[in-house]
Amino acid sequence: MGPGKQIPTRELRASEVPLVEPDQVDRTTSIGGQLGDLWTFALSFDGYAYFGGTDPAHDRLVQFAQSVSKEFRETGVLPKLGEIGMYRACLFAEQRRWAWMAYSDLAMADVQYYKALADEIRRRVH
């Protein structure tokens, strides 16, 4: 899955953010494969460019995204982040992580985190 059409945050509409319904995920098949719409949406934002677009941007993005994911997994609540781009960058990083894992399966905890990110992004746009 390669980069898709970029959607600038200022032009993003709530209807463009896919709904993630963890209770509708079929646990007998690849969870990651069922998230195609979410992955396409995640790639509509360039998280690397958001974090500077240089070689160190990858590391900065990964460290940031891991800290947000860790806090969510420990508390069940997304941390308050200043800009919607930060949430979009986290979702972008999760899509890239899934692709780097050679499309291996994901856990339901991952899906809960993706739902929280998508819901927060949707909440912040029109």
Descriptive account of the structure:
By secondary structure, the chain is mostly helical. The chain has one domain (9-124). The protein has five helices and no strands. The protein has helices at 36-42, 47-50, 55-75, 84-100, 108-124. Helix 3 packs across helix 4 and helix 4 (84-100) packs antiparallel against helix 5 (108-124). The longest helix has 21 residues, at 55-75. It starts with 35 loop residues before the first helix and ends with a helix. The mean pLDDT is 89.
Task: List the SSEs and their pairings.
Elements: H1 36-42, H2 47-50, H3 55-75, H4 84-100, H5 108-124
Helix pairs in contact: 3-4, 4-5
Largest sheet: none
Write down the secondary-structure element order: HHHHH
In one word, what is the shape? globular
Strand content: under 5%
Number of helices: 5
Low-confidence stretches: none
Gap between N and C termini: 27 Å
| Helical content (DSSP H or I, runs of 4+) | 40-55%
Summarize the structure.
This protein is mainly α and 126 residues long.
Any descriptors?
single chain; 126 residues; mainly alpha; 5 helices
